[in-house]
Amino acid sequence: xxxxxxxxxxxxxxxxxxxxxxxxxxxxxxxxxxxxxxxxxxxxxxxxxxxxxxxxxxxxxxxxxxxxxxxxxxxxxxxxxxxxxxxxxxxxxxxxxxxxxxxxxxxxxxxxxxxxxxxxxxxxxxxxxxxxxxxxxxxxxxxxxxxxxxxxxxxxxxxxxxxxxxxxxxxxxxxxxxxxxxxxxxxxxxxxxxxxxxxxxxxxxxxxxxxxxxxxxxxxxxxxxxxxxxxxxxxxxxxxxxxxxxxxxxxxxxxxxxxxxxxxxxxxxxxxxxxxxxxxxxxxxxxxxxxxxxxxxxxxxxxxxxxxxxxxxxxxxxxxxxxxxxxxxxxxxxxxxxxxxxxxxxxxxxxxxxxxxxxxxxxxxxxxxxxxxxxxxxxxxxxxxxxxxxxxxxxxxxxxxxxxxxxxxxxxxxxxxxxxxxxxxxxxxxxxxxxxxxxxxxxxxxxxxxxxxxxxxxxxxxxxxxxxxxxxxxxxxxxxxxxxxxxxxxxxxxxxxxxxxxxxxxxxxxxxxxxxxxxxxxxxxxxxxxxxxxxxxxxxxxxxxxxxxxxxxxxxxxxxxxxxxxxxxxxxxxxxxxxxxxxxxxxxxxxxxxxxxxxxxxxxxxxxxxxxxxxxxxxxxxxxxxxxxxxxxxxxxxxxxxxxxxxxxxxxxxxxxxxxxxxxxxxxxxxxxxxxxxxxxxxxxxxxxxxxxxxxxxxxxxxxxxxxxxxxxxxxxxxxxxxxxxxxxxxxxxxxxxxxxxxxxxxxxxxxxxxxxxxxxxxxxxxxxx
Length: 770
What we know:
Blueprint: H1 3-21, E1 34-45, H2 53-60, E2 70-72, E3 76-77, H3 82-89, H4 97-106, H5 113-116, H6 118-131, E4 138-146, E5 151-160, E6 165-170, H7 177-184, H8 199-214, E7 226-231, E8 238-245, E9 258-267, E10 274-278, E11 283-287, H9 294-300, H10 311-323, E12 327-334, E13 345-354, E14 358-368, E15 373-384, E16 393-405, E17 420-431, H11 438-441, E18 449-461, E19 465-479, E20 484-501, H12 503-511, H13 513-519, E21 522-537, E22 543-554, H14 556-564, E23 572-573, E24 576-577, E25 581-593, E26 600-612, E27 663-676, E28 679-691, E29 714-724, E30 729-739, E31 760-766
Parallel strand pairs: 1-5, 6-8, 9-11, 9-13
Antiparallel strand pairs: 2-3, 4-5, 7-8, 10-11, 12-13, 14-15, 15-16, 16-17, 17-18, 18-19, 19-20, 20-21, 21-22, 22-25, 23-24, 25-26, 26-27, 27-28, 28-29, 29-30, 30-31
Helix pairs in contact: 2-6, 12-13
């Protein structure tokens, strides 16, 4: 071993010894014990008892207190407790100077056994088990002391008793109109005879009944007016449940109300003279000039005089007015209780103040894209948020950016010389309603919108080409449930034109006819549909499921029209060939929070396919799939993988242009955890590739085939840091390549990376990868 290597090894051993010698209990009092986490939570059910997954998660929550510097809370800690070291060694009684500033930034108060209070937490755990019906269960704790009693882990033991089940369920006995409503709720009750006792279900049932009654006119009814009486003497582990109205429920809560007079007061930022006008359902008192069309206002009012007063209609009215985006504030009030007396109607008053319609914004930022480009950008945007007095938004946006690419410069044997700049001017008009016949929109529960777009974008890759793209589109956006959103593009036309190309780029195009066809000047007329399902669920919102499916069809309608007029393929539009293809992309994401802290397991699966036919041999280059980069397989630079097992020649600096495909498969798993303050970490595993659906002799091994498919899946792992500043997440990821889809003559076997260094890919990005 060389003297230099011996010296470096000695320095590392000395540093490790010094760190190990640093005490984390130096400043603790004589009777204080540092809490270092939970050793184990033992669950010991009685014979035949099965603890439900929901109850297990709930009972572990109060016991899972995070120690200092947690890695996998509450069981594992990071090996470098920087916060505790700073608390022990950097303390200064003087509240000034660099040492004190450094101490305040790094030090973390020690988590003590006396603060955790294991005995109190066992009592809380017993209460949680009772909430799930496991009455008679017991919880206990014990300390595992170490370091001469200065540190301790906690062991918890949970002995689970058999659960209680419902023997019978009775609803309140009432008279009058309330009786038929209560009776009708039995069929949809959350409570069932024979089901296991659950306090959460009892609470949800009270809320359900109250919500149903408030949507039948009983505006002043509240869940707390209902109470449960339980009898556990009828049989072992059985409970007879009765739901009753509490004594002395206010009279107003047992009486249905109808909507009375509706008054809308509209005020401007600058006060002016008022006018009064009568709508079909309301009286409007508005300051001049009136900045909303009466028809738009009437459409937003869901409450109707004479109808039963429902809280859903009240909420929809406020939501509809707020969604117009033209009001600074919207407040709704009803007849005060002390003014009701024996009245059976509720008068409604709406107070809304208009906001400034014109808005200008100048933004400078650092952006990151899915293709691994990062760089500074500037955007100037001017918008009118009430163009036609109906909440219509016209926005003009001028943007420019300069970008460079992050990643592994050794991927594919080429450096990443993909710096570029972009300039764009776009106009968007958004109407807060669907421009469709009323018969088609009458049954929609959620307001939709109609959008129009016109734009021009210039992209310059100095070493390759300069391209300009003109685009225009029209579409609809609407919801059918709180979780389901739809975007329908009824028409979109894009025209791509190459303004300038370099000699090396032309040479690459001459050698790759299929790629050249995707870059030619062409129109892309298309229609598209995107469905998005996004739902957060779980008792504490600890899980989220997201699915988005997009379908695009280009050129088919235009081709059919031209064929009807006798024009055969190849067909042209204004003297230029137009594209014809279908494309579908489906993406599924699942997020699950582990424990009470902000630790998440995030997963993604993406499948995409596109097929060109008829008037096109290949899809436009902008529509083709690529893989790799900051938001994909992070061990590899964007467009350094695929298609299939194909690998461009090492000396071809433009070879990345070949690395696009018609089919994409990608999967990602990432564990995200907190480190210290706003600093978070992640470990990840990425896999995927792209393929061609048609054989290309210029790219051998690129076609999708089942045989050998597993070996053509690129695989990478790695770790990263994220700094969260609330409105922005700055991310740094280091990817580690494990397998490339192309064979490596220098390295056999599954791990076919030439060297560890060649398999590293570093990415600096903004936002989470998915």
